Amino acid sequence: MVKDRLIAAGIAGIAGACSNIILGVILKSLHWSDRALYDYSTTLFGKMTYGSMGFWGFLMEIITDIALCIIWAIIFAYVIKVTSSHYYYIKGLGFGFVIWMVLTSLGTLFNIPLFTETPLEVAYTTLFTALVFGFVVAWVLKFIEQKTELV
Questions:
Q1: pLDDT, tens digit, for every residue of 59-90?
Q2: What is the pLDDT of residues 94-139, one digit of tens each?
Q3: Cα separation of 65 and 81, whole Å?
Q4: Alpha helices of 83-119 — where are they, by DSSP H?
Q5: Per-residue model confidence (pLDDT) at position 34
Q6: Using an 8 Å Cβ cutoff, are 50 and 58 in contact?
Q7: C-alpha distances in angstroms, 61 versus 10, 11, 37, 126?
Q8: Beta strands in 40-143 (DSSP E)
Q9: Is 39 left (phi over 0), alpha (psi -120 to 50) or beta?
Q10: Alpha-carbon span 84 to 15, nearest angstrom
Q11: By the 8 A CB rule, do 112 and 106 touch?
Q12: How many CB atoms lie within 10 A of CB 8?
């Protein structure tokens, strides 16, 4: 099999997006937050939340979140390549934290209505899901590196 870091990162991004979406849906259904990390992706693309538009809107949220998560995972995979493959999980958690900081800052900088004044419960739930996303991406990349010849 040919080594391809981009494909491995894409797979890790999809896995991270799935964890992000599942956790977001669970946290929203438990009413711990009215927004999830995947809501950022649609607000970045269209400055609105499609999730309030029924099934097709939620599907659009999932598609845009997967696309954004793949981009984040590709960035992470190349950061790992430039630095080292040691401490994958710590780097994954740190990267998840950076993603949370960047997305939260973009909400404030561009005055995105849902993310300008973030309530505490939203901040905690989006931070938690961002950390889980970073960890899952790191775990999948490490798994692919150990079990296949893709990376």
A1: 888 888 999 999 999 999 999 988 887 898 99
A2: 999 999 998 888 878 877 777 777 888 888 999 999 999 999 999 9
A3: 24
A4: 88-109
A5: 84
A6: yes
A7: 18, 19, 11, 15
A8: none
A9: alpha
A10: 22
A11: yes
A12: 21
pTM of the model: 0.88
Kindly report the number of other CB atoms within 10 A of residue 147's CB atom. Answer: 8
| Positive or negative: CA dihedral 43, 48, 54, 60 | negative
- The pLDDT of residue 22 is 94
What burial class does residue 62 get, using C-beta atoms within 10 Å of its C-beta: 0-12 exposed, 13-18 middle, 19+ buried?
buried
- One-letter amino acid at 89 equals Y
Distance CA 89, CA 69 (A): 17
CB atoms < 10 A from the CB of 20, how many?
31
Are residues 67 and 41 in contact, defined by beta-carbon separation less than 8 angstroms? Answer: yes
Structural tokens at position 151: 């990376």
